[in-house]
Amino acid sequence: MTAQLIDGKEIAQQVRQTVAAEVAARAAQGKARPGLATVLVGDRPDSAAYVAAKQKACQELGMVSYHRPLPADISQEALEAEIRALNADPAVNGILVQLPLPAHLNEERVLALVSIEKDVDGFSPLNIGRLAQKGREPLFVPCTPYGCIYLLEQAGVKIEGANAIVLGRSNIVGMPAALLLIGKNATVTVCHSRTKNLPQVVRQADILIAAIGKAEMVRGNWIKPGAAVIDVGINAIPDSTKKSGHRLVGDVCFEEAREVAGFLTPVPGGVGPMTIAMLMKNTLRAAQIQQG
Ligand code: GUN
């Protein structure tokens, strides 16, 4: 079998176009353009690059970006004051605190402070709590897991009743992805570094979401023939044929997986572009909730 590749770049582009059209329509009605605040503490190059991409997307979609670069040694109190000011600013519809924060800061307290109506990352305890409970709806769903589910749905993969395996249990991807799949009536198993007989467990998956952060860990013979495989990993591995000296690979061994899976997302060009597209969708939703 050769897997059908799920083109995240194309699907993300469609989401972005829909969001941009709605932003333009709202502006034509005299409504304020949605505003997204990005809070970046310190100068981690990976975080700076992600935040720059989020700011660029805002501009491309007709939204307004409010960037708050803050020093790595900022105090908890000063960071909390920034969040309170953004909560109170009516031009700011969404607030994104780029993670991870430096070790001296209390991430839980910072995320809990973000107003639920502006929590476009879906990381506030209220949004996650609602995601975890039956019959409750979060205002916002975390962007990367939201993108994973959107890709499955766009590819026509049936989630209801499927055996879904989530590899990884991070707050940002694995855990909310598992909660979303439960909400869509999949039978969900969450695997992690201490799971026994991992290849055998993964082989039960009709749907596999790999978000463990280990380059090409999932081999072809771990995959059930015909399974839908969503690869969230973005790992740099050495490659002397590249000018940069490295190339990006996922958590799944792509060449092996494509011979076995029914559906597969490539890296790059799979889940990656979806994270920002879903952030833009969430930011538009935040403006709609706040402005009516
Ligand atoms: N760090 C890695 N991924 C994310 C994300 O989706 N949102 C935020 N805020 N930080 C991240």
Give a description of the structure.
It is a single chain. The chain has 292 residues and is α/β, with parallel strands linked by helices. It has a 6-stranded parallel beta sheet. The protein is globular, with a radius of gyration of 19 Å. Helix 2 (45-60) crosses helix 10 and helix 6 crosses helix 7. The chain starts with a strand and ends with a helix. 40% of the residues lie in helices and 16% in strands. It folds into 2 domains: 30-116, 3-Layer(aba) Sandwich (Rossmann fold); 142-273, 3-Layer(aba) Sandwich (Rossmann fold). The mean pLDDT is 97. It contains 10 helices and 11 strands. Guanine (GUN) binds next to strand 4 and helix 6.
Whole-number count of domains: 2
CATH topology of the largest domain: Rossmann fold
Provide the succession of SSEs: EHEHEHEHHHEHEHEEEEHEH
Q: Please outline the major beta sheet.
A: 6 strands, parallel
Global Rg = 19 Å
Approximate strand percentage: 15-25%
Mean pLDDT: 97
End-to-end C-alpha gap? 49 Å
- Residue runs with pLDDT of under 50 for 5 or more positions: none
Strand arrangement within the widest β-sheet reads 1-11-8-7-5-6
Helix run count? 10
CATH class of the largest domain: Alpha Beta
Structural class: alpha/beta
Helix content: 25-40%
Q: What bound compounds does this protein have?
A: guanine
The coarse silhouette is globular
Strand tally, please? 11
In CATH terms, the superfamily of the largest domain is: NAD(P)-binding Rossmann-like Domain
CATH architecture field of the largest domain: 3-Layer(aba) Sandwich
